[in-house]
Structures are given as C-alpha cells and as structure tokens.
Amino acid sequence: MLIYLSVTILVLLLLSIPVAATLVLLGIGVDLFFSPFPLTKALGQTFWSAANSFLLLSIPLFVLMGQLIVKSGVAARAYQTLDYWLSWLPGGLLHSNVVTSTFFSATSGSSVATAATISTVALPQQKALNYDPRLFLGTIAAGGTLGILIPPSINLIVYGFLTETSIPKLFVAGLIPGLLLATLFVAVSAILCIINPALGGPSKKTSWSVKFKSLVHLLPLLFLFAMIIGSIYLGWATPTESASIGVVAALALAAMYKQLTLKNLLSALDETIKTTSMIMLIILAASFLNFTLSAGGISRYLTDFITAFNLSDFQLLLLVLFIFVMLGFFIETLSLMVITIPIVTPLLLGVGYDPIWFGIIMIIFVELALITPPVGLNLYIVQASRPGEPFSDVLIGVIPYILVMLVMAGILIAFPQIALWLPNNIQ
What we know:
Number of strands: 0
Distance between the termini: 45 Å
Structural class: mainly alpha
Helix content: over 70%
C-alpha cells in the first residue's frame, strides 16, 4: 500500500501531470482499490468544506499585495539603499541580495515572488561589476526562500489551516528564525569572500549623507510590515483582514510612486489569479486525498507502520525530516506540505512536540526543497532571468546555503525557544 502511494505519486509527477490532478487521481485510486465505500461521492462536499474558509481569503490578498509592491518599484529602490550600506563588506552586493530579500519577504509572503523580484533587480549589477555568477546566483535563490519563513507567509497560513494552529503565533514564531537565517547567509557569504576574494565584487564606500538620505526607500517595506503584523497583534484585524489592509497600503504606495497604471494593475491581478488558482487547486485536491486516506484506513496504516519501529521521539523527528529531504527532491513545496502534514503532524504532536515549533522546522525543510534539484522552484526562477547561461551556475551557487539551512534546522532542534520565545511572550 505504501509502495503503491509512493510510486504512483512519482510516476504521475514524472509524466508532467499537474500536481492537483495527481492528488485527485491518487485519491480516486485509493477509493477504487482500498476502500469498501464509494468515497468519490464525497468529492464535491470535500472541495466545498476545504474552500469554505475565511482564512484562505488571505492567500490571494497577500499575493496581490506582493505583486503591487513589485510593480511599484519599491524593491529596486530598497536594493540600491542596501547597496549603499552593505557594499563595503567582503562580498559587496551578495549581502544586498540577502538583506533585500529579507525586507521584501516581510511584505510578499512568497518565495517565488521574492526570488523573481531580486533576480530582476540584481542580475544587471552582477554582470556590470563582474561578480562570480555562482555565488551571486546562490544568494538570490537562497535569499528568496526567506519569503515563506518571515511573516507574512503563505506557506505558514496553509500549515496553520491544515493543523488548526494559530496563524498569528506562527507568523511571530517565524520572525527570529528568519532573521537568524538571513544573518547566517550574510556571514557565510562574507567568510567565503574573505577566503576567496574573487567570488565577490569590488567594495564601495558611500558617504554617510547619501546613506542616511537613502533610508527613506526602506520605509515603504517597513510601513507595510508594521501595518500587517501590527494590526494582527494589536487585535485590530485577523490575518485575512490584515491582508486586505496590506493591499490597500500597497495600492497607496504604487499611486505615490506613480505606478498605479491600468497596465500594472491588470498585470498584478493576472499574476494573482494564476498563483491563487494553483495554490487553491492543490489545497482542494489534497483535502480530497487526505479524506480518502483517512476514510480508507491508510492514514492509520501508515501511522501503525511507523510506530511499529518503536522509535524514540528524537528518532521519529529525524525520520520525518529525512522524509521531507527525500520528497523535496521530487515534489513541489506546497504539494509537499499538503501531502505530508495530515500524516506526520499527528505523529509528532502525539509524542509532545509543539505544533508552532514543528511548523517552523517544517518550513525550513520546505525552504530547502525550493533550492534542491530537480524541482527546486527558486533555481528555475533565478535561471529564467538569465536565458542562455549555464544552469549549473545556480546549482553550484546554492550549495553553501543548503548547508546553512541544515545548520539552522539543527539550531532550532537544539534550542526550540528560538522559535517559541516570541509567541509565548506576546499575547
């Protein structure tokens, strides 16, 4: 049964069948071969129950907000500002890539949007200043992963929805690990450039007056972050309502920069519809699959199969994380989450692991899947901005940052309070 599920998923994905269709076909297969009941008759009700959630309205709103920020040119101005402040460090613009990704992540909620935006802004600078392409591309791809850890995060919303965990607590739990991971990215980039200066570009010094004047370009991103997270923790808005506040603020910023044109607005809406449709189809399909797995007794079978090994709590955690690494090579990140969460989360929570802490750990490994071939989405997003160039540059460039993510996961396992301190102390 377990082999059937694994092989079927891999075969359908390798045949380039869309993920949502793969999950529905797998659910139908479970119904036909493993269930004595006609589970497919519940397909419509399952879809409706999954879609009929006020919380899920926040997904298109956060996507739209990120698109409006991209169209307004805020990211390009922030990148230039951080170049002024960070280009004196060993590695120069490598650090601007990471820190701009950090700022943009705090408004976009999407790794794909973050990686695409920073690629557009940064790659012309890489060619003009003759940076080593590998490490430069690695910082963009890895920095983009911060979009699903630093709040607001669409993936954290999905995790909270599927596990009935507090979204505000998940948001604030991701803040310190996200900033720490960004700091580790910067530190590793600097160390590599100290060891081999040819990896970085020329260091630049900027006058203090120019630096301070440029800080005004960071204010829009800080303003949006404060509006979204602040409205949630002051009790003024739910996550969905805060997303709508963010959209209004993003519209105001686009108008302020004279970028609120009909063309930009239609383009933002078009991208929002595409992204939201993909996310919602996967969520609906996964809900049906999870229903058939549970009703057909397969979830219980998988649980019994794993618990039969009599693993310790820590060994069970390592097994689950190993499964995430293996599946992350072949399955897109959102699909990875919705397929595995209903199975592994009850196991880990049942032995006493905190759902908020595990959510952050899971996101770290989902981030890892974003930059590991063959389906690491951020790798292709970055490569798409440089057609005709070797893809191997991106693959080699992310290796140091993959190792950093594994170290970050180890730190969170050893010191869970890094993720739990803020949610436990902010009411």
